[in-house]
Amino acid sequence: MQILVADDNIDAAELYRAALEDRGHVVTVSLDGQECINSYANAIERLRLAGKTSSNKEPFDAVILDYKMPKIDGLEAAKEILRINASQRIIFASAFVKETLMDSVKELNQVMELIQKPFEPDVLVDLVEDTAMIARLDDINSLVMDITKKNPNNPDKGQIDMLLQLLRKIQKSGTI
Fold it and tell me: What are the residue ranges in the chain where pLDDT is below 70?
């Protein structure tokens, strides 16, 4: 798998890289949100120049975003990546899972995969390799559509708690 990692903690980013590469994945690391967006846009351009663009071809199998980063945070980076490619798989790494979940529902109108910091690198690799998670996440996001229709940009605490419980239930690793 091709993986893009964005984390401003270089030690954490290198730890993720080592764990992912040990399992045979190709990893690109960026140290802030702006660098991540640039790496993503450059990968899209390389695909275009190689004649490999299509609606179902992402440059990365997963993008792992630290939620809190300088310059551009993970949420803003996710917005830009999803603007470029709405079907890109994004995983937020965050110590603030409820805040991250609420912001992803409010700002992105969907639940993104989450892994709560701190975590063991192998747990991250297991999550990345769980591609069945994508289909299970679609079920949760249909609930998000209902929530945002009823109360746009303002899910309540109970709705966020419910979404977090559903997300915990479908993630094999139980990381959040």
Answer: 52-56, 152-153, 172-176
Indicate the helix (H) or strand (E) that contains 29. strand 26-30
Tokens of 151: 């109360």
3-state secondary structure (DSSP) of residue 5: strand
In terms of Cα–Cα distance, which of 61, 67, 25, 23 is closest to 43? 61
Q: Rounded distance, CA 162 to CA 69, Å?
A: 27
Report phi then psi at 18, rounded to 5.
Answer: -60, -45
Residues whose CB falls within 8 Å of the CB of residue 163, separated by 6 or more in sequence, listed in order: 101, 105, 111, 140, 143, 144, 147, 155
DSSP string, 62-119: EEEEESS-SSS-HHHHHHHHHHH-TT--EEEEES-HHHHHHHHHHHHSSPPEEEESS-
User: What does the alpha-carbon distance between residue 150 and residue 128 come to, in Å, rounded to a whole number?
Assistant: 32
The structural domains of the chain, ordered by start, are 2-170 (3.40.50.2300)
pLDDT tens digit sequence for 99-144: 999 999 989 988 899 999 999 999 999 999 998 888 888 888 888 8
pTM as predicted: 0.88
User: Which positions ≥6 away from 156 have C-beta within 8 Å?
Assistant: none
